[in-house]
Design brief:
The protein is α/β, with parallel strands linked by helices. It is built from 21 helices and twelve strands. Among the domains are: about 5-310, Up-down Bundle (ABC transporter transmembrane region fold); about 415-485, 3-Layer(aba) Sandwich (Rossmann fold). The protein has helices spanning about 10-45, 50-95, 100-105, 110-135, 135-150, 155-200, 200-205, 210-235, 240-265, 270-310, 370-380, 400-405, 425-430, 435-445, 450-455, 470-485, 500-515, 530, 550-555, 560-570, 570-575, and strands at about 330-340, 350-355, 360-365, 385-390, 395, 410, 420, 460-465, 490-495, 520-525, 535-540, 545-550. A hairpin with a 2-residue loop joins strand 4 (about 385-390) and strand 5.
Length: about 575
């Protein structure tokens, strides 16, 4: 947790202000019992009403100063904690944005969401408590001990006797609670994962009548979290009664021994009352520390999870010296590329070699699991290859900056992803400064203009989260428009026409051929009709290239391609 609190440097002057206000408040609280003692031992005994009123007014003034300081300390503490939480969320989000897909797969999306929200909230709450309680506790503890000893040194031995019992009680409770707090955050991750899956997969769940099953899954995860929470709260609930029991027994002991000292004339009544108040302040400081111990273990577990994200080094980083690739624009080369997913038993791709050039359409086809999407995901460097080299415009992509590399690529993923906002905003996502004419032109090429213009607000129509108010084909066409507006050197279409009907597919490919005449196009497809006119077709099978060539060449030389064609086209269409 201390590693996270290094980021409090920007708030140093605010924390200093909190410290000053807390100190003044603590000193006022410590001075009040002495004044009360003076009233009892001097004003009441002598019957001096003026003295009582004078000291009473002074006590009211000190109380007011303490109250004002308390308000300011609370305000500055909250401001510091909220600002710290904001900065920490920005750091975590920025760090996650730099992760490769490997890190996302390793940590999990649900866990990353929990760490960015709930875990940071836990740390925020502890920071507020630390500045309000932990900062004042030492002042109250040390000041209380000094004032108590000044009133009666012998009676102060009661505090010495009771302190080890208090510390041991706190230690034992924390020893039992800490593992449970760590388990609670893991259970929360699991609950978040199930909830997220249930919400995103609601159509599939209802289509297969799996609502009862999902409810059972959620109830089990929810019960697991509840079970751990109850266990930890049972332990923590034991703390406060123990603290109060020790405090009250201490007060009883002070009254007993203090009474004996008053009876012997060694102590005055006012001093005994002040002594009890100082002991109460000492015990209250220890209780405040114990309350902190309630929150610190969970926050510590949360801080460890946040640090895990912040300290996780992305597996894909830019080279120390990057190279620009502005010559031979649009050239893509795979040179004996091999790639395996972490933990996989066999390579996803083995010894892949081919070249593409501007004005050329390269189609990639193969059976399910043959490595088509994996191959195109390597081009924007979503994963790093294990062997070989991938070159863009003659430069190894590992020598290019990721920003420069991806700026040269218009990527349309297999699953069409749209963001909440307008259609204009979604298409402009590919090019921030795109004009209205460029957006409409991209939509026309992507065959999206017709349905967009029929919508009530046209290009200003709102798209819901995930594009749920659009059909699959409409989402695909807007995803294609987003890539087209960028006018990149290389277009990558990862099975991006699968939701389109044959007529729209044909019109789109014809429009694309003219639009991308000066660029390189890599096209992953399942349909043979989509790849028939490609300049170069790459046939993949089990991660290996089985054939490269045109449709006619592959029909004569590649059995795998011929089998795919025969499974989709009739003999007349093949002829």
């Amino acid at each position: 947790m201390l590693k996270l609190f290094r980021d409090l440097k920007p708030f140093a002057w605010i924390i200093a202000g909190v410290l000053v206000f807390v100190f003044v408040q603590s000193m006022s609280d410590l001075y009040l019992p002495t004044l009360m003692s003076d009233i009892i031992d001097t004003g009441v005994v002598k019957g001096d009403t003026n003295y009582i009123l004078k000291i009473g007014a002074f006590m009211l003034l000190i109380t007011a100063v303490g109250a004002v300081c308390s308000v300011f300390a609370s305000y500055l503490s909250s401001k510091t904690a909220m600002g710290f939480g904001k900065n920490l969320r920005e750091k975590v989000f920025s760090r996650v944005e730099g992760f490769s897909l490997y890190e996302f797969d390793k940590v999990g999306t649900a866990s990353l969401i929990t760490r960015t929200t709930n875990d940071i909230t836990q740390v925020q709450q502890v920071l507020i408590m630390m500045m309000r309680m932990v900062l004042s506790a030492p002042f109250m503890l040390v000041g209380g001990i000094i004032m108590a000893v000044s009133k009666d040194a012998k009676l102060s031995l009661v505090i010495v006797a009771i302190s080890p019992i208090l510390v041991l009680t706190i230690f034992l409770i924390m020893y039992k609670a800490l593992p449970l707090f760590k388990a609670m955050q893991v259970k929360l991750d699991k609950l978040n994962l199930i909830l997220r899956e249930s919400l995103t997969g609601v159509r599939v769940i209802r289509a297969f009548n799996r609502d009862p099953y999902e409810q059972t899954r959620f109830e089990k995860a929810n019960y697991d979290l509840m079970d751990v929470s109850i266990k930890v709260n049972k332990i923590m609930a034991f703390m406060m009664p123990m603290m109060m029991l020790i405090l009250n027994l201490t007060t009883v002991a002070i009254l007993w021994f203090g009474g004996l000292r008053i009876d012997s004339g060694s102590m005055q009544i006012g001093d005994l009352i002040a002594f009890i108040q100082y002991v109460s302040q000492i015990m209250f400081a220890l209780i405040m520390a114990s309350v902190m111990f309630v929150m610190v273990p969970r926050a510590s577990a949360s801080a460890a999870r946040i640090n895990e994200v912040l300290e996780m080094e992305p597996s894909i980083v830019d080279a120390k010296v990057t190279v620009t690739a502005d010559k031979n624009r649009g050239y893509v080369e795979f040179d004996h590329v091999s790639f395996s997913y972490p933990g996989a038993e066999r390579p996803a791709l083995s010894h892949i070699s081919f070249q593409t050039k501007p004005g050329q359409v390269t189609a990639i086809i193969g059976g399910t699991g043959s490595g088509k999407s994996t191959l195109v995901n390597l081009i924007p460097r979503f994963y790093d290859i294990n062997a070989g080299a991938i070159r863009i415009n003659g430069v190894d992509i590992q020598q290019m900056s990721q920003t420069d590399l991806r700026a040269k690529i218009g990527f349309v993923p297999q699953k069409a992803i749209l963001f909440s906002g307008t259609i204009n905003e979604n298409i402009r996502y590919g090019k921030e400064d795109a004009t209205a004419e460029e957006i409409m032109h991209a939509a026309r090429i992507a065959q999206a203009a017709d349905f967009v213009e029929q919508m009530k607000d046209g290009y200003e129509s709102e798209i819901t989260q995930g594009g749920t108010n659009l059909s699959g084909g409409q989402k695909q066409r807007l995803s294609i428009a987003r890539a087209l507006v960028r006018k990149p050197d290389i277009y990558v279409f990862d099975d991006s026409f699968s939701a389109l009907d044959f007529k729209t597919d044909a019109k789109l490919r014809a429009a694309l051929k003219e639009e991308t005449a000066d660029a390189t196009v890599l096209l992953v497809a399942q349909r043979v009709s989509t790849v028939l006119d490609a300049d170069q077709i790459i046939v993949l099978d089990a991660g290996k290239i089985e054939g490269i060539g045109t449709h006619q060449q592959l029909m004569e030389t590649c059995a795998v391609y011929r089998e795919i064609v025969e499974s989709q086209l009739s003999e007349e269409e093949i002829a």
